[in-house]
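Sat 14:20. Reprocessing the chain from the morning session after the first attempt stalled halfway. Input below, unchanged.
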Amino acid sequence: MLMTLIQKEILHHILSVRFVVLLLMCLLLVPLTLHINHRNYLQNQVNYQESIKLSVTETDDAPRNPPAPDVEVSKLFLEPTPLSVFAKGLEESLPSYLGMTRNGVKQGSTSLAEAPLSSALGNLDFLFIVSTVFSLLALLFTFDAVAGEREAGTLRITLANALPRDIFLWSKLIGGYIIFVLPFLVSFLLGLFLLVAQGFPLGEPDTFPRVLSLILVSLLYIGVFFAIGTVISTYLDNSKTALIVAFTVWVLAVLIAPRAGFLIAKLIAPTRPLQSVYMEKTAIQNNLSAEKESVIGKKLTETLGTSINFNKAMEQINELRKPIDLEYRQKFREQVDKIERVYQREKKRQESVGENLSRITPTSSVIYLVMNLTETGKIRRNTYFQTGTRYYNQLEAEYFGEISDDQFATIARFTSPNPPKPSKIVPPPDIAAIPLSETLRHSVVDILLLCFFAIVFTTVAFLKFFRLDI
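Finished this time. C-alpha cells:
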C-alpha cells in the first residue's frame, strides 16, 4: 500500500509545473555554477603561484641590513583549495597572506577589498544554491501536501478507506522527497563530470569522501525543510495561507536568523578593530626602543665616561648593552602577548556567541558544516592563523631576536671590523591539511542539530496529523 501511494505521489509531482521548474533550475544552476567557480579557482591558483615567486624574489633581493619594525621580511600565503568550487566560504574574506614584521604579524589584503561591489551581491556557489534556493523549493513542494488535499476535500475521501494516517503521510514525505532529490542528484553528477573534465582532483583520497559527505549533508538539509513544509501544511487547512506562512518561515530561517545572531553578538561582546591592535603594538615598540636607548646611554656614560672610543671599546659596549637589550626584548614580548591574548579572547567570545545564536536555524548549521567540509570555513581559518603565529615565533627566535636598532647597535655594525653576517630568513611553512575525521569531529554539533531538526519536525508533523480533525 505504501509503495502504491508513493508512486501516486511521484506521478502527481512529475505532472506538475513545480517539477519542471525544479528540473530546469537544477540543470542550469548547479553545473553552470560549478563550472564558473572552477575557472575562478584555476585563476586564483595562478595568482597564488605568481605571488609566491614574487615574494621569494623580494626576499632574496632585499638588503641584509636590519629591517624597520613594520617591514614585512617574509610572507605566508594562503593557497586556494580545490573544494572552494563548492563553497567559497571564508576564503575571500581571509587575508591573501600574513606578513612577518618585527612588530608582529601583518595581514595582507583580501579578495573582498579588491572587488567590493561584487562582494556586496554575495557569492553564487553550490552552498548558496542548497541553503537558499533548494530550501525555498522544498517548502514550495510541501506547503500543500496536506492543506491542499483538505481544501479540495480529497483527504476526507482518502482516509475514509482503511488507510492508516501514518502510511498516508509517509507516502507524501517519501514520494515528494524522491522526486525532489532526483533532479538535484542528476544535476550534481553532471556538474561533477564537468569538473573532472576540467582537471578537478575528484579521485584524490581526501577529496572524494568530502564530496560524498557534501551530498549527504545537502540531502539531510533538504529533508529538514521537507519536514518543516509538512508541519506547516498539517497545521493549516488553506493552501494559500500555508504558502504565505511557508514563505515567511523561509525568510526568517534562511535570510534573517543567521545574520541576526552575529548582529546581536556584536552588541553583547564587542571587540576592537585589528588595526588598532597593530597600532598599539607599534606604539609599544617605539616607546620601549626609546626607553632602552636612554638606559643604554646612561649605563655607558656611567661605565666608560662621556668620551667613548667606539673602535677600542666596542667589545665592552656590546657586553654592557646585551643584557639591557635582552631585558627590553622580553618586556616587548610580554606586553605584545598580553594585548594579543586579550584581543583573541574578545574575538573568540564574540564569534562563539554569534555562532551559537545563529544555530537556532538549520541554515546556519548547514553553512558551517559545508564550509568545513570544503576547507573554506572556521577550521581552515584557524589553521591558517595558527601557522602564521608559529612561523612568526620561529622568526622571532632565529631572526628578529638577533636584531637591535638602538643607536649603539647601529654604530657597532658600522665600526666593527668583522660585522656579523645576516641570518638567513627561514622560508614559510606549508599550511597543514585537516583530515576528514578531524573536520567531522569539529562539526559534530552541526550534524547533530540537522538530525535533531529533521526528527523533531517530522515527529511534530505526524503528531499533528494523527490529531487532525478532517
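The chain has a mean pLDDT of 86.
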